[in-house]
Amino acid sequence: MNAVLTGQNALITGGGSGIGLACAKALLNDGAAVTLMGRRLDRLERAAADLPRERVSIVAGDVGSEADVEHAVAVAEQHGALTIAVANAGIGGLGPLIATTSEQWNSVIQTNLTGTFHTFKFAGAAIGRAGGGAMCAISSIAGLRTHRFMGPYCVSKAGVDMLVRNTADELGVAGVRVNSVLPGLVDTELAAGLFATESVHEDYLSCMPLARTGTVTDISAAVRFLCGPESGWITGVNLSVDGGHHLRRGPNVEVFSRSLFGDELTEGRTKRQEDS
Question: Which of the residues 25, 121, 157, 204 is marked catalytic?
């Protein structure tokens, strides 16, 4: 174990699997204590079973709930002063904008953007009280490049990146650094559907100068750097970790929209109710 983060204490939302769990392992490997927050207690328990128990806590909760996040920060502080927070919890969604309900829109925004706000609000205050530290949000290439038929997700992640910059500007005086990592296509449960159709996967790869699928360790290594002492003069940065995908265009997932919603909605056409 590298001891460079010994004495550091981290909260990771969405920590039960995928990128969140990989971030936990990276921080633990360098000596930090970690609290994993997630909606499903059973998943958190399975994740924690393979981690150093003396430095790991778990807390079930929804980042969309202000009270749940405030409680998770309090649980994390049982390890000592909070110095690191990773806002990773997020959900996806796919469909034409004109077929998106307010409920679907609000669900994505509440988890991805408002959940990050809640994390920054309570963890940021705690880290400031501790004398400083770092927060890192997991954003997406979808916050930087348009992804047709993924409107709510794109908007939520673009909002996360602006929230990162604004929070960095506000909390720098308290010694709190705030950055985000923008993954491209990474092999996680959330992205599983994108791998299921070969044409979609190949389109993603064709947009990457480094044409390979990302791994959770690609992302956790960047998060570890942005939360560690090596990046002590970096704040307000939205770092793309995507094989260079951000240099080109968003992916073509039209095949999913046509399959799920039909040609008319996919092409932005819909009949008036009186014509149906």
Answer: 157
